[in-house]
Amino acid sequence: MKNYSVFQINGEITNLPVKLKGNITIQQIGDFAEIKTAFGLLVSYDWVSTVHAKVPSIYADATCGLCGNNNYNPKDDLQLKNGTQGGSPEELGKSWRVAEIPGCVDGCKNDSQCPSCDITQKEKYETNKYCGLIRSPTGPFQQCHAIINPERVFQNCVYDVCLYNGKKGAWCNHLRRYTLQCQRRGVNVSQWRREDFCPKSKMMHPDNSHYEHCGDICHATCENGLPPVDCKRPCEETWVCNAGFLLSGRQCVPFDQCGCMYKNKYYRKGQSFLTRDCQQNCTCNGMNCQPHSCGPYANCVLRNSIRSCQPLENATCTITGDPHYKNFDNHHYDFQGTCTYTVAEACHLGGSYLKNFSVVVENEKWTRTDTPNLSVAKLVAVELIFCRCVPQLNGALTTIPFNLNDGQVEVFQEGFHYAITTDFGLKVTYDTVYRVEVTVPGTYMGKTCGLCGSFSNKTGEYELPDGKKTTDVKTFGAAWKVPVSSVVCEDGCTGDQCPKCDSVQKEDFEKDCGIIKNSKGPFAACHSQLNPEHYYRDLLFLHPAHST
Fold first, then answer.
1. Which of 72, 82, 195, 392 is the most interior residue, by most CB within 10 Å?
2. Cβ(329)–Cβ(317) below 8 Å
C-alpha cells in the first residue's frame, strides 16, 4: 500500500504520530489523519478527498471561510472575505482562494459550462445501482435519515457520478462518507458492500489488516503499544490491524518492527535523520545519535522537505532601471544616486582563505527622458588583486572573449550581456545600459558589504562602511559612494524632487503595468515561483519616465 502516513510540518516531512509545542497532536485515527489542538479544533483528512473541520461552541459566529460563519443561519453562509454576501458558491470560493496554482479555475462561469448529465443518465445514476441507496426508505441507511438528511448527500453523489461520466466506483466514496457520518452519530448502518457493488477488496488498506464494517478505530500504536489517549469513538467502517500487529504511521507492523519516538516525533525502524540544527545524526535502531556537523561551507537546511547539509548556495544581487536593488538577501529597495558606488566587495575576511574583490558601478542621469533625478548604470568595474576589469562597449575591452592570469578571470558576451567570471565563483553581468547582476558563491555568506548587502539573511537594516547600521536608504547609498575627481553627481532625491505622477497618470500606468501580476495573464504560471509585486512596482515607477 502507498504510504499515506507522513505530514509536512513547517516544510519538513514528519511521520505520524507527532506532538507539537502548544499541545497540537497529529495522529492516525481509523482511516483518517487527525489534527487536534488544545483549544478544541479538530481537523481530519482521509488522505484522498474528504476533510472534516470541527470547532468548539465558543467559536459560534466567530468563523469565516468556505465552512461559513457558524451562526446557525445557513442563509448568510456566502460571506466573502470583505464581509459582504456573495451571489454564488463560485464567488465565495474565489474570494477565499489563498494561492495561485497554474491551471486552477474558480468553478464554471455559467450553467452551460458546468458538468451535467442528460435526463436519461441522471435517472440511471439515481437508481439503487448507483446513488439511490443513500435515500432508499428500505435501504441500509434508513435508520439514519431522521438524523442526517440524505438529500444533499444524494444530490452530491449524482453530481459527481455525472462529472466522472459514470466511472466505476465514483458513487462508492459518497456511500462511504454517509456511512461514516451516520456511524459517528451512533446510528446503525447495514452492510451495503457486495462483491459486485463497491467491494471491500477495492478499498485502500494496509498489509496485515482486515476489514470491519463497524470496527474499533482506536488502534494500538507503536508509540507505546496502546490506543491513543482519550480515544473514545463509536465504531466505524475501517481496516483493523491483525492480532499481533501495531499501527506504525498507517502501516500494521509486528512489535519488533516498531519505530522510535524522539522529541515527540515518530521515526520508522532503521530511519536515519539529522536533528533540527544538524548537530546530531540519529538512527532509529535503539535511537542511536552521533555528533554531526555540516562544516564551514554547508548549511543545515530543508531540501525536498528533508533536513540535510547542503552546500552554501550562490547569492545574486540585481540592479535594474533607475536603480532598483534586490540585494543578496532578496531585499528590495530603491536608490537613485547618480555617482559611483561600491555595490559589492569582500569584507570581514579575517581568518578565511577567501579572495578579495570589489564591484563598482558608475551611475549617470538617464538622458532619454525629460524626467529629472532618474539614473542608470553607465559603467561597471570589477577590481581583483591582479586586475581592474571594465567591460565597456566602446572602451579598451573590445576583443571579447578573453581571459586573464591563466584563466582565473574570463570576460565574454552572454546573450545581450557582457560577463566577467572568476575562478573563485564571482560573476558580474552588465547589459551596458540598464541591468547589472553580481553573483557570489555561498562561501561569502556574511562576508560581503556594499549596496548589495551583507549576504546574512537579514533584512531591514543596511550596513555602513564603518560597520554601523542604518535604516535610511539614502544615508546607506551615500556612504558607499566612491570619490571621483571633477565629477558632479547627486545621491538620489528627496521629497518633491523625486519623480511622481498624478492620479490620472497613475491609473493609466497601473492598467498598462497590471498585466505582469494579472492572475489570468501571460505571467500567471510564474507567480508561484517569483512574486510579481516587486516587478510590478519597479515597472510602475519607470513607466512615467519612459512615456515622456
1. 392
2. no
Lookup: cell for 37? 489542538
End-to-end CA distance of the chain: 65
Contacts of 307 (CB under 8 A, 6+ apart): 12, 273, 274, 275, 276, 278, 300, 301
Helix axes 150-163, 172-184, angle to 10 degrees: 160
| Cα separation, 349 vs 325, whole angstroms | 24
CA 111/CA 530 separation, integer angstroms? 35
Length of the chain: 548
User: Looking at 5-14, 44-53, 266-275, which range is the least confident one?
Assistant: 5-14
CB 264 within 8 A of CB 18: yes
Q: What are φ and ψ of residue 533, in 5° steps?
A: -60, -40
Instruction: Give domain limits for the chain.
Output: 270-310, 314-499, 506-545
pTM higher than 0.70:
no
Residue-wise pLDDT for 497-544, tens only, equals 566 666 666 666 666 777 777 877 888 878 877 777 767 766 666 554
Q: What is the three-class DSSP state of 340?
A: strand
**Dist CA 48 CA 180 (whole Å):** 15
